Amino acid sequence: MMSRAWVTTLAVGILLLAAFGVVVEPYWPGLSAHAWWEIALVITLGAYGACFAAVSIPRIVDPRLSIPLLAWILIAVGYTAGAFRRAERRREMHDHELEVRAFGPGDDRKHMGRGWAIFATLFAFGMIASSVALVRYFASRPVDPTAATTRQAPPRSAAAPAPAAAPRVPTNILDVGDLPGAIAFALPSMTDDRRAPNVGAKLLARWGTAKLTWTEVVPPTNETSLELAEKDPSQAWGKRLCASGTLARIEKLTIDGTELHSARLVTKTGDALELYVVGNTGTLVKRKPARFCGVVTGRLDVAGKPATFAVGMFEIRAR
Q1: Quick check: pTM over 0.70?
Q2: pLDDT by residue (tens digit) across 94-124?
Q3: Which of 134, 150, 186 is nearest to 294 (CA)?
Q4: Which of 28, 48, 52 is nearest to 38 (CA)?
């Protein structure tokens, strides 16, 4: 059965390591781009400090406990560094009988003692704090992006080929060949106009009527949600999502010469989607269940009821 000291050590160690992980986690994306030795230094310093504190704290309560291995490691490092300093001092003083300090904390080499336990605990927390400070420093220091590109640049040939002409920027959305390109074309025209569908929505509907397919509009996973789109509409523009619910209305319209359907879809949670629907709508009518996938283009408040606006298609199952 484990002693009370070991139980305390294990519990404190787990808590300190977990706390260290929680503090470091937000900085990890910035830290992970740095050199391996920087990452190793941070992790080693923080983990060692957490473990050292875990074995030192029980010895404050019971100073009769033996000196832990982690403390002996630091003592050995300090003693080795001190030995070099003493040797240098002997050479300077020409005194070969200079007293050599005992290896360890005091005369009693079996027990740590409360004073040394308190010092060791404070030292351990200092290691953890130093590790956190290093994490924040490394994460805030940008990695030079030219470091990888300047290594062993290939020699230039005597007659380098002429650079390729820049791709032609389309002036008509119908010249765009895929959905990502159509979204990029329409995105600058998406605005937070809550009274009417914005120009970006109409452009995307025009392209979708001509070229959009169900396979292209369905994302592997939703790129945003109705909750996020309602909270910050501009951050959701151009992102795909799918939603299921009941049709509150659906009607055929012609918008700037483009025939499509305008609809309102209400989910089970009461959230609403105002839609421009292109393609086949099958036998869908008001009060029928439907599944929609499309691109968020803004917001449209109808009769005081807020709704996310999107352009896309209904799922029509083959019979």
Answers
A1: no
A2: 555 545 454 455 444 567 677 777 887 888 7
A3: 186
A4: 28
